[in-house]
């Protein structure tokens, strides 16, 4: 798998911070589903917070912070949002209250004590990890025993339409790589988690043009950062060629350009 530059990832997400919430249709659906599954899987407790959260919760790769108030509303007494992109945290401050802390940090090196958190969520961040076992082991370190974890990540097949189209034009790396469901679940196990629930689903967005599709990816910071990538959108000629070979669908008489995401949701616990 080609290596990815963490700081390049951080820079592209920082640049996308102000456009992210407007453009992130699939991403919003994923985090909404993640929070709903967290509610459904959280065990009932003999208190007024039956089925709700409690204590200190982490949101790793919190982005613009859309999940932070939901964690507070669900019962978390304090919430810490962590992201590598300063621009994202700047936007996230608008979603924060006085019981929410925001930290600029690498998900592989959290500036936190051992066993300081009661639970953790992470939506569409883990797929950026070069070493998922290392990343998950660090998350395990900061969690208390029997703490819940809810994670959404991406699987192979994500952006398959774009991959298929580019493969007809050149041999460059245009799509970020993703690891399999089996390998992700195994990474959780190796890091010390017990996976209690896992499900995946294919979500698709549709665009009026390839240019709009690529701009949408740029607006959420989810462009290709692998070695050997082509800079920018590829030039007018490349865009013309891409639009000619891109798989399309017809909707109410209009040609639409689909872009699919294979999403995996995992609910796990520390031992």
What is the structure about, briefly put?
Converts the free carboxyl group of a malonyl-thioester to its methyl ester by transfer of a methyl group from S-adenosyl-L-methionine (SAM). It allows to synthesize pimeloyl-ACP via the fatty acid synthetic pathway. The protein has helices spanning 6-15, 17-23, 25-41, 68-73, 86-92, 132-142, 160-167, 181-190, 210-219, 235-245, and strands spanning 56-60, 78-83, 100-104, 119-123, 148-154, 193-207, 249-251, 254-270. With 271 residues, the protein is α/β, with parallel strands linked by helices.
Layout of secondary structure:
Layout: H1 6-15, H2 17-23, H3 25-41, E1 56-60, H4 68-73, E2 78-83, H5 86-92, E3 100-104, E4 119-123, H6 132-142, E5 148-154, H7 160-167, H8 181-190, E6 193-207, H9 210-219, H10 235-245, E7 249-251, E8 254-270
Parallel strand pairs: 1-2, 1-4, 2-3, 4-5
Antiparallel strand pairs: 5-8, 6-8, 7-8
Helix pairs in contact: 6-8
Notes on the protein architecture:
The chain has helices at residues 6-15, 17-23, 25-41, 68-73, 86-92, 132-142, 160-167, 181-190, 210-219, 235-245; strands at 56-60, 78-83, 100-104, 119-123, 148-154, 193-207, 249-251, 254-270. With 271 residues, the protein is of the alpha/beta class. It has one domain: Vaccinia Virus protein VP39 (Rossmann fold, 3-Layer(aba) Sandwich), CATH 3.40.50. Strands 1, 2, 3, 4, 5, 6, 7 and 8 form an 8-stranded mixed sheet that branches. Mean pLDDT is 89; it is low at 46-51.
